[in-house]
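step 4 of 6: structure.
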Amino acid sequence: MFHSTRFKLIFSFLCVSFLAGGISLFIGARLLYDAVLMEATNQTRLALNAAEDVYQTHVRFIGLALNITTLGIGFRTSFIERNIPDLVDRLDRMAKNADLDFSGIALSDGRTLCRTGGNAAVDSRTDNPIVRYAMNKGASIAGTITVSRTFLETEAPERAGHIKFYSSQTSCPDAADAEPEESCMAIAAAIPIFEYRTTGRLLGVLYGGRVLNQSTEIVDSARKSAFFDEIQSETTMPAATIFFDTVRIATNMIDQKGNRAVGTRVSGEVKQQVIVRGKEWTQRREDLGDKYISAFMPISDVFGKRVGMLSVATLESNYGAVQRKLIFLFIVATGFGVLSAVGMGYFLARPIMAPVHRLIKASREVSEGNVSPDTGPLSKDREMALLQKTFKDMVESVKRTRMASQNQILQSEKQASVGRLAAGVAHEINNPLTGVLTYTHMLLRRTDINDDIRSDLQVIIESTERVRKIVKGLLDFSRQTKLDPEPTEINRLMDATIKLVENQALLKGVGIHFEAGDNLPMIVLDQNQIQSVFLNMILNALDAAKPSGEITISSRPALSANDIGHPGIEVAIADTGSGMPPEYLSQIFDPFFSTKDVGKGTGLGLSVSLGIVKEHGGTIRVQSEPGKGAAFFIWLPVERQVEQDESAGRGR
Amino acid sequence: MKVLVVDDEGIVLESCRKVLGAAGLDVIPVKSADEALLIIDKERPDLLLIDLKMPGHDGLYLMKELKNRHIKTPAIVMSGYSTEETILEANAMAVRFLPKPFTPDELVDTVRQALKGDPMKQIKTMAIKEVNPCPSPC
């Protein structure tokens, strides 16, 4: 079935659709992947913007809280009166409400008046960048700052004990100390306190801030605000991170141990792009063993110095799931397309194949002997119609040549059989007639008979003479045709003969191979008669051969087996048919012997062939074994020309 | 004069014996070529009258055999199958061809002429003409 045309058609359909499907799958998957990545990148950027909003909101919130405190009833009075307990009380409330890690009031001379926490009254001169900024500008400020460990240990010793500090070359650039001190990042605000509400001498600054190192509030609310869709689980939600320089100081990214990945660093490349060049940057990168799509933006401190980064990172595998889902859908759709192509191919192949099947059936019928097969109605398909028409024409021409060759054989068979009959009749009748004539004449010679008897005997003689003439006439009329010999190339004669049966062989699916011998001498023979012998032999072989069988014909110079040493040509015609049992071999040349069904053969073909070959001075022998086919060897003598010419000359 | 007649048909042999006997010839009738070969040396006939078609060895075989044995006794070939080919075949070896059936006169004439050693080409030609009345196919 794998070699059937329908299979091939469907297979081609399949290949084409697989190819188309495969290519579209490849391109589609590629496009999808890019689209998903693009979407992921956009989402991550959006999330980063949201995170920035959250960050800024927190910054503004601190500023607001401080502002409200300075505007509170009695604050100014307590400040001017240096009512420390009241001020500390107010600061504590503010710090509690605004969730500040440190807060205090600095005086215009740099001293700290009071602060929250344990060191409420300790006066220190540690650099307070936010206060410095507010003092210098004389204006309110809220933003990011970096503060030194010393500062935080003074301001919020408890908090300082819990967090990690990192040294950064970018931190405290204005610090007098040459050695960079370990520091941390904070968001803070400072509100200047003036002599007359908003004017006059600057008396002090209210400050407060929240340390970002190891804080969770901003990053967690940033993450929450960054939504994402419902297919993401808690663990695969995007992570927000605040970097101090390249160190994660606040993050909800999880390291391999399942803890927040605080303290880990990102590559220098990120620093180069974001902190040094100040660009927003999005990148697909590997971090902490997973693939992330990360977006970064720089964080500048209140002095405009880029000290850190805010980033949102999304696990690429989140989108991988989406992508896989989409690609799966894509594959399913492609598979469905291919399947429907196959199905359609199957049903489309049917009407295409129907006339072909019909032709196959018709050609089988032809090979079985029916030369008027039904090829069905003419197809609307032009090529198919042409094929049908060509097939019909071919069958017609086969019918004609077959009829012609059969007629030729029948004719010679008929002639020969009548001749044979006449010869038999002549032989059998002429002998007794000789007796009748002799005895009647002898009787007539006698003198002792009367006239009545004499005239009766005369009647016998006359009647016998009539019989003699009838027999002679019969013999003359049906006498075997005279030979019409001419020099012939046996291979050419065989080629011409094979041409006559080629179509028939083709239809039956039998191959005819002619191995023409080289340098064969010319042979003098009656072309028509010898051709009818060849034709007869080949048609017999064709009848015996099974479909896809073979007929092998060869010619070669050969010496006679009977008349030893006489040169001649042997033509062998062998088939791969069913062969003959040995008991048939002695009978096949007998007239009216046939192995074919009644009506299919006259049983005279071989005997006539033998007669013709014998007339040419040749022989026919046969080799056959049941199941192994049969081979006929026709030997024809050369140098027959001289004898023929002589005898023909003598005859005329 | 001795005439050896070879024919498988008893009636032909008997006819020849009667007619040739009446004409004053000695007739030795045999039924086959093999029989003829057996007795030919002993009988030494002056003439052979041979039927062409016989079962087993036929008349042609007999004449070939005689030629092989260098027996040059003239032979008349008779046949009921008097086609041109047969006559030509016979003429190659025999002195006369006698188509069957024949009348006693025809037989005696042919035998006498053969015994005389007359070439008588005329008769041969006549015989051919007789069996082939229209040379072109009718």
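step 5 of 6: annotate
 - The longest strand of chain B covers residues 2-6.
 - Chain B has one domain: 2-127.
step 6 of 6: archive
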